[in-house]
């Protein structure tokens, strides 16, 4: 369904017809909804729902489809997270975050003087984490799916084998990747079998990826982690300086974990626990905001931006200090960080007249890659899936085995690369997230479901590196506190503060010059950005028996498809 902004006077009957299902950037459905970064992928998900599949089935099929039609972030060579609540209110999460290979070491990105070799943790095959996506989608289906596995993977096999019309976005990427800085795999990625670059609107086929997907379709998890694909991954790694072996692949397991839970007024919030930092930081920030008298603070005012920025500053300092892979950090104080009492302590030391100063001798994080992708699904029973997964950078490591046809992540860059070194520019070296063999790197992905009386109400998530946590936080706040309709909550002005570097990032055209000046006078260092977040959300309006889906207008190929 093409998104239509029907907020101007509409006279054509045909346009009115479309507006029944898509109005003001919102799409409506009575029986189910899928929202993702690509319309073809959302359609695959809705087809699965129409066949009687549940939200998990549709999410799995949509995720595989994104690996074909949205290769900049959709993937089988990366990892991510699922948050799931069924129609009866039972909740769970699936962690399929990548892991450090068994040969990884804490100092693998340092020179002989112990200094970080700039960029090395995001470049080349050593930056690749052991992929988790196929194991995670398989586990989600084994535990909670209803339709046969093969039916969920088959649409993606067909998209790869028969091809699809190349979008303007992908065609632009393809052209940009023809320069000398691009590794060979990516240079050839968008070429047809004759070796010519596929142009906008032409059919793009991916025969090697189709074969890999066929193996996954026929053998499930083992189609990726064992047999021919695993052998080919190991061979490619060995020949090109990578360290992932068949032992790493065989050992990879997805993990089911209890969600991080919190409340905001009458709403319950379910999000992703570590190894994502997203859920903990989101709950901490919502708890802090609950203490503020927001009735007297106008949205987007100086007081609002200051309070939100100070809240973010505190949550990101805690993120840096405490969070990492729970399997390597059994003592993380998660209950404390998400408690109302802890929020009280953090709220109390906010100065409402002055910006705090982030202490550069303590904790912080870099602003990092923004190319992740999120999908939200709800089915006819009200069961909801919030799924975010990633390759880290756009097209990840930009490396892949030509025979396999998929791109490897560069997720090792999400570890703290230089143990013990934390700087004001944002390098962080705290122990919870340093590299160890078999460890999952800390993530910011924040797939979230807000429930009302135990039933899914808002399904939401976003790409955006560390900005994910903050854009999801502000969107949730916009819906729950400022009662904005979903499309406005998603499009509204967003800011980002991540403790270190100590700067307040804002959307340039959405914050008035007067407010910018007032914030600078309070001591904030401002930094303009074009856009923050690319949110994919669904609201279940139970009173009206309707699902409302919104794909952020910043997603060029994204779409909410309902039925
Ligand atoms: N690669 C982005 C994240 O996991 O936060």
Give me the count of strands: 20
The rounded distance between the terminal residues' Cα atoms is 10 Å
Q: Sheet with the most strands?
A: 8 strands, antiparallel
Q: Shape, please?
A: globular
Ligand identities: glycine
Write up this protein:
With 563 residues, the protein is of the alpha+beta class. It contains 18 helices and 20 strands. Mean pLDDT is 93; it is low at 1-20 and 362-367. Residues 369, 372, 390, 392, 411, 414, 443-445, 465 line the site of glycine (GLY).
Give me a quick take on this structure.
Helix content is 33%, strand content 16%. The protein is an alpha+beta fold and 563 residues long.
Q: Any descriptors?
A:
eight-stranded antiparallel β-sheet; alpha+beta; 18 helices; 563 residues; binds glycine; 16% strand
How is this fold's topology laid out?
Layout lengths: L12 H7 L2 E2 L2 E4 L3 E4 L2 H12 L4 H15 L9 E7 L5 E6 L36 H12 L4 H14 L1 E2 L2 H9 L7 H6 L13 E2 L2 H13 L2 H4 L1 H13 L6 H6 L3 E3 L2 E5 L2 E5 L6 H14 L10 H21 L11 H4 L2 H9 L23 E7 L5 E7 L57 E5 L2 E6 L6 H14 L5 H6 L3 E2 L7 E4 L5 H9 L4 E4 L6 E6 L4 E6 L7 E4 L1
Parallel strand pairs: 16-17
Antiparallel strand pairs: 1-2, 2-19, 3-11, 3-20, 4-5, 4-12, 5-8, 6-7, 9-10, 10-13, 11-12, 13-14, 14-18, 15-16, 18-19
